[in-house]
Amino acid sequence: MNSSDKVVEIYTDGACKGNPGVGGWGAVLKYAGKEQEIFGGETLTTNNRMELLATIRALEKLKRPCKVRLHTDSQYVQKGICEWMPEWKNRNWRTTSKKPVKNDDLWKLLDQLVQQHEIEWFWVRGHSGNTGNEHADQLANRGVEMITNKI
User: Fold this and answer.
1) Which of 16, 19, 60, 139 could form a disulfide with 39 if both were Cys (CB 3.0 to 4.6 A apart)?
2) Which is the catalytic residue, given 14, 24, 26, 143?
3) What is the mean pLDDT of each run of 10 residues along the chain (151 residues)?
4) Catalytic residue among 42, 73, 80, 132
5) Is 1 inside any structural domain?
6) Which domain holds residue 104?
7) Which of 24, 26, 51, 80 is catalytic?
8) What CATH number does the domain containing 63 carry?
């Protein structure tokens, strides 16, 4: 990648009605004046899994190595990737108390995806008027509705 490459802006969010419960994830990808919305859901999940899945599904949409500015309102995702993951990997996906890392299946997948891109991670306060985050939140709730209407 060279420094003149454009940046993909990604906003992600997860939602869960009950924890565990019916959950949804959503993401907005913005690049070169275009915008793509993605969302989905699961019947029995947690909010943290939906936050991770939103990030994973967004990064899976990228067809080549990209510069990315990824915005999440999940401190679990932001701190997990930026602070905790290196130590989890050093301990073979175990916490400091030697217990297995929760959601390690998703963390391992996310770890593979982030290595393909140059990503800046940003935490944004949820429900605080950030338009990208609010949009991702609406999509995550559409994911919940999609699953709820199937049940």
Assistant:
1) 139
2) 14
3) 71 96 98 96 97 98 97 97 96 96 98 97 91 97 94 65
4) 73
5) no
6) 7-150
7) 51
8) 3.30.420.10
As a whole number of angstroms, the distance between CA 73 and CA 32 comes to 24
- Strands 34-45, 21-31: parallel, antiparallel or unpaired by DSSP? antiparallel
Q: State the pLDDT at residue 84.
A: 96
- Catalytic residue check, 137: yes
The pLDDT of residue 4 = 44
Q: Is 111 a catalytic residue?
A: no
What is the tally of structural domains in the chain? Answer: 1
Q: Is 71 an annotated catalytic residue?
A: no
Instruction: Determine the pLDDT at residue 55.
Output: 98
69-89 core/surface letters (b: 16 or more CB in 10 A; e: else): ebbbbbebbbebbeeebeebe
Catalytic residue (choose from 134, 135, 137, 143) = 137
Catalytic annotation, pick one of 13, 23, 134, 143: 13
- Predicted local distance difference test score (pLDDT) of residue 151: 65
